[in-house]
């Protein structure tokens, strides 16, 4: 059986998740495993068509596709998210149709279900036959129980593929609308007093539904509020999962790009944060994912504690609440339900 492994970790062959795949390959050596380090080579995959085409060629001949990824900030890493966007934009998505697929994820069993649900939905959109998922703790392979559980998962997965088992979709297809958003009568502007309001968008949406929502939101405050566009920042790269920040709260990108200064000088002092973005393949953009992943340089410190956070979202609604459910789950926000203005 030909198995294509799409690894989302930026750590390449040193990925903890990939060790689960390696363990499976030793238990079932009769199968062929074609491993692509998507997270580590994302720059080449985005810029070099030959690199991307090599992945698609493997997918075309695969009997099974394994999505192997760690969980970064409640979802897949930004690098993996960028690959998803490239995949759907490239027109190569039909290559996945009818292929068996499965997910192997690694985390501390915190929001791994959210990452798996996202990948399950992506596979439904790709028309694959989703055969199951396996969520592991980082140290499971060091325990006999963890080894047995993974072996049983792999045996059942391979048996399902080889016997031609049928699997249905669980996720409703995305429903897009061509409706043009127009604001209603302007309410009385809100006086935020001494509170500092910061609106962050991943790109400039002028002339779009979201752009009009942003304009209306800004005009809804009595005083001027600051608007920052993430794509205007000079950000050198995505989170690498090196955990250097776990030692001293300092990122390896310290002093090398704009992100750390932006987080400290703009985000940290804000009392009210408004996050604006469009839904792309069932989540916010990879630029937003980069924002959440890179924000983890503060590690598990509740960096957004007591801040009010709202959302402006444009795009197809997600049945389970989508990104606004908890996009930055390692931060703790003010109590209550965050407001959100959403348009399809």
From TrEMBL:
Gene3D superfamilies (alphabetical): 3.40.50.360
Location of region: Disordered: 314-344
Origin: domain of life: Bacteria
Domain (NADPH-dependent FMN reductase-like): residue spans on this chain: 1-109
GO molecular function (one): oxidoreductase activity
Keywords: Flavoprotein, FMN
Name of the protein in question: NADPH-dependent FMN reductase
Native species: Desulfoluna spongiiphila
High-level lineage: Bacteria, Pseudomonadati, Thermodesulfobacteriota, Desulfobacteria, Desulfobacterales
